[in-house]
Design goal:
Elements lengths: L40 H6 L6 H9 L15 H19 L8 H4 L8 E3 L5 E3 L2 E2 L26 E2 L6 E3 L2 E7 L8 E9 L2 E10 L5 H13 L4 E4 L7 H13 L7 H4 L7 H14 L3 E4 H7 L16 H7 L11 H12 L8 H24 L9 H13 L1
Parallel strand pairs: 1-10, 6-9, 8-10
Antiparallel strand pairs: 2-5, 3-4, 6-7, 7-8
Amino acid sequence: MLVPNGEIIYLGTPQTEMSLYNYLPERGYDIKVWPARYPNTKQLKQYRGRIADRIVNILKLNPKLAGTSTEPTRFSDIDLREREASYGRAGFSLQFMLDTTLSDQDRYPLKLGDMVVTDLDKEVGPVKIVYAGDKAHEIQGLEAFGFPGDRWHSPMWISTDDQGMTSYQGKVMFIDPSGRGKDETGYAVVFQLNGMMFLMDAGGFIDGYSPATLESLAEKAKEFQVNSVVVEDNFGDGMYKELFKPVLSRIYKVSIDDEFLQGRRSKGQKEVRIIETLEPVIANHRMVVNRKLVEKDLTNYNKHPGETWAKYSLFYQLTRISKDKGSLLHDDRLDALSGAVAYWAEDMSRDTLKAEKEHYDNLLEEELKEHLKYALGYEGTTGGFGETLGFIELSEQE
C-alpha cells in the first residue's frame, strides 16, 4: 500500500515462527506491530521495540489495559478468549499477538498444571468439576516428569453426591500399534461426559503384535467396559487390526470403529497434529486425569534401559512435545491419547454449564413425577419439566 509520503506499507500476519518479517529490518525496513491485545511488560520486551507507538503511548497512560483488546469494535475481550482457546497459546500468540518469538512456555504448550487429577470411578463421573490452578491445590508428593514448577492440581470442587454423579456418555480405547523394537504399542482409554475428557488409563506394550500384547489390550478394553475401540492404521496397512479382531471378540465383544479413521487419515506433521488436538482441551481445563494412571506412569513397568525409560512416560511425552519435527524420541503413548481425544472432538463443543443444568433439570423432573404419582395419584407425562410444572399450576387454580 502506497501512503501520501511515498512510503510503502505492507499489512500482514506472520504465519510461522521463522517469518520473513523477522529479517526485514536487516534490509532497512521498519517493522511496526499492532497486536490484538495490549501486551504486558514482559511481552513488550519480546517485540524488540517493534510495537506501534500508539500502543506504547496508550499503555503508558493506562498500564491496566494490558491484556485487553486493542480494537474492541472488531475483537471483544470475550471473542479473543474464545479464539485463544481455539488456536491454543502458541497459535494465538502468532496469529493475534503477532509474536514470532516462542518462549519455553509457548514452545512446550501442554502443561500438567492445566489438568485436574483425582480418583475416578469406572462407572460414573462427576457432573461438575471446578478447576483450581493455585498453590493451595497443588498435590504434594505426586511426582511427574514435567518441567520444574509444573505441578499437578486437585479440583477446587467436585460433585460427588448421588445427584452429582452420572454415567459416562461414552468410553473409547485408542490403540497406536508398533512392531517389535524400541517403539511401544501405545493405548489410551478416555471417557467423555458433558464435554469433559476423563483420562482413565494409558500405557504401552513393547512386544508389538504378540499374542500376549493383543490379549492384554483386549483385557484393558474389558476392564474399562469401553463402547468403542479404534486401532490406528499406521502399521502393516491395517494388519494389526485384523490380528486383534479375533482376540478382542473372544475376550470382550465390542466393535472396532473403522468409520472414525476414514475421516482421520494422518495429515501434516505429527507433532503439530498432536498439539492442535490436545492443547485446546488441556489449556481449557477439560482434561481430568485418573490419579492411578499418574502413579503408574512413574514406574518403568516395561523395564526400559535406566537412562532412557522416562522418555516412554506419557506425561514426559506430553510436556516435552513441541512443533519442532522430531522433538520426541518416542511418542507412542501420547499419539494414542491424541487419537482418543480426537474421537470426542465434536462433543467438546458442548457447554459444560448447560449440560450440568440439563442434568439437574432431569433429576427434578423425575422427582416431580414421583411426587405427583404418589401424592396426587397422577401418573404424570413425559412432556418435560415445563409440562409438569404447568399441571401443578393448573391444580392450584382449580
